[in-house]
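In the laboratory, one determines a bound structure by crystallizing the protein with its ligand and collecting diffraction data. In a computational setting the workflow is compressed into a single prediction: the sequence and the ligand go in, and a structural description comes out. We illustrate the idea with magnesium ion.
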Amino acid sequence: MSDIIHLLPDSVANQIAAGEVIQRPSSALKELIENSIDAGADTISIQIKHAGRTLIQVVDNGKGMSETDARMAFERHATSKISEINDLYSLHSLGFRGEALASIAAVAQVELKTRRTEDELGTLIRIAGSRVLEQEPVQCDVGTTVTVKNLFFNVPARRRFLKSDNVEKNHLLYEFYNIALVHPQVSFLFYDEEELIYNLSPSNIKLRIENIFGKNLRKRWEQQLLPIESTTNLVKIYGYVGKPEYAQKSANQYFFVNGRYMRHPYFHKAVLTAYEQMIHENESPNYFIYFEIDPKNIDVNIHPSKTEIKFENEQAIWSILLATIKEALGKFNIVPSIDFNSEGDVKLPPKSSMGNVVPPQPSFNPYFNPFGDTTYQRAPLNWEELYKRFEKSNGMTIEKQSTDETLFGSKEYSSDEKEKIFDNNLLATSYFQLKNRYVLTGIKSGLLIIDQHRAHLRILFETFLNQMELQKGFSQQLLFPESLKLTVNDALFFETIIEPLKKAGFIIENKENYTYEIKGIPASLESVNIIELLRDLIEKSKTTEEDPSLHIKETIALTLSKAASLKVGQALTAEEMSALIDQLFACKDPYYTPDGKKIMIVISEEEIEKRFQK
Ligand code: ADP
Ligand code: MG
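The predicted complex, in structure-token form:
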């Protein structure tokens, strides 16, 4: 038999590699704009048609390429930006892999026109599916124009994988914002179907933010942005954060490091922590935060399509970030009418003769309930109702559980936890409620103390989860569809959880301008404020590092049960306590809340005896 291993032709290898780099029109746009920035352009004009499916064109006035370089640029691993591995640690360009143009040319029809100042004539190259069709001298302006037509013309599977025009356009704009926000000195024009939708003249960061986002906003951006700044040995942090009262359900949130957009769930949490208690639970602050750090301390060699960046000293930066934002918010609270046009030059009022400066008083409503006036809010009052509902869903089975931590001495849980733990020789178990918070009862091995709120959370969590499993795809049509309006940023996060939501029974229709119409919901969620819930889930999907779609059912169930569970301070009757404990032990995991907190503790008989001996 003859040998069977051979090298793949370049065109095939390039197409495979392109799958990694170019996933959708927005990935191509991102690469092209980044190349223009790297080429030192100060004016970049972008043109798209059919959400980038048929046309993406980027025109720049950068340094251009020589005839040979223009041809070389389309080779894989051809780059002018690094030549040895150490260059990676002092990287000052956006690109460095030398893969983008080769990848784009593998899956589209590409035309490149380029000229350097020193050349009289420019070069024109046409390539389609990695095949060079034409190369010739051409009259053109200094700079580079790359025109990408019919993306994925030779990869039907990819084409089918693309989402609606609306979604793809969101992706395009998102990439555009990510770059435009870090290069305020560059002027950008953005044409969609020949209509000029953005005309951003050179400016500073603050004006750039306002020029991009200002038109959709209630108030002028300059009234709501607070400058932040902090320089330490480790990192420089600067930018703007929104005042607490301008927090939104769907906020614009951007992190950049060394001029590159990044996603950073961990730092996102630091920002949220700074605003804790200042804003409602289901709102989020706007922020545009720029980090400058020695490239040695971050891992840039990331996957081209990934935007997560690893930092050394993440914890230290977390604390610096938190302190920086807190400081800005603190200043703001003391001096509410600072003129922020003075760019961070904050003048504190002279210390009054009274001496003490009043600490910032966060304004927030501790009784705020994101779910509004719903049945679930009143659930504790409809106690019996809750159990009726629960009895109906027969899906609760007691499963054998194995955990390392043994609460009751034995490593093996029997199939009936309650029987094992409780003393069956007693005619009736009596329950005692302590501080309207804990339920106490005697068990075989001693005294059992249950946190009623946590127990209820577990019961509701499993109920909701069960209902979602059982009624898979079963939806309740909404008589009046609700509309969910998002920012580009949030729409992208929403897209990642939309499929599991549909599986859970949501009927969601995608409208224009990042608006979604919610036409149906899972039957178990009838009385919940759906819009608040979805916004809450979007926020949660931002802070999870894993694929949010994996946990979406759990997240929904947890969110719902938290809103509906017994609050601390709820008096319970003997029957209620008994029912609570029965239901708890019918749960798959009666010992821990879905978010991992202990539900019960046991004080053993020996422990009690010991105490009496002293
Ligand atoms: P990378 O940006 O990682 O180097 P690309 O495939 O994006 O790889 O580009 C390959 C090379 O082509 C770049 O290194 C650069 O020298 C050149 N190039 C690409 N786009 C432009 C442009 N708009 N202006 C000038 N040179 C460019
Ligand atoms: Mg590049």
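The mean pLDDT is 79. Keep in mind that any predicted model is a hypothesis to be tested, not a measurement.
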